[in-house]
Amino acid sequence: MAGKTRAAMMEETRGKLLLSARQSFAKHGFSGTSMDELTAAAGLTRGALYHNFGDKKGLLAAVVDQIDAEMAARARDLGASADTLWEGLLAEGMAYIQMALDPEIQRIVLLDGPAVLGDPSRWPSQNRCLDATRDAVARLTAEGVLRPVDIEAASRLLNGAALNAALWVAASDDPARTLPRAQEAFRLLAEGLLADR
């Protein structure tokens, strides 16, 4: 049987580290995660972590990117099942806020992520979400569903509203009670962009 290629071995190592980190960050938080325990759980060394991610912060950035991409895909799937592009865009934002109740997302992406990595609007994963929102807003504006609006401004405000609502839900003392308030406010803000019918 032929051996694995170097690229396949590197990808396997990255996958093991990401899985181990994701489990540890979710359970212990970023500051409570020991690099030695994390790498041992993956059956690897600290050297593998440094080689693949630079440091623990780089590993967190990769885990956040992975989870945020999964969040975006889940929201997109919900949006795609809506009857109209507008309803889909609204459903995506509402779903993103709803995901703040998921303990893994809450701790890793919405609490530790900003605390360690800084402003989420500068994360690559958030910029990919912004690209998708921008495309939808441009189409909805061209179709006359939305008022004539600056596409960039509206897209950034919609994305920012959903993100900040999710951050608020995650950080609140009672996320389940905060969620409907955040979603309702997001919906009302978004509907302000609709053209008069």
UniProtKB/TrEMBL annotation:
Pfam families: TetR_C_41 (PF21351), TetR_N (PF00440). InterPro entries: Homeodomain-like_sf, HTH-type_TetR-like_transc_reg, HTH_TetR, Rv0078-like_C. It comes from the Bacteria. One of its GO terms (molecular function) is DNA-binding transcription factor activity. Residues 11-71 form the HTH tetR-type domain. Coiled coil: none annotated. Keywords: DNA-binding. Residues 34-53 bind DNA. This is TetR/AcrR family transcriptional regulator. It comes from Paracoccus gahaiensis.
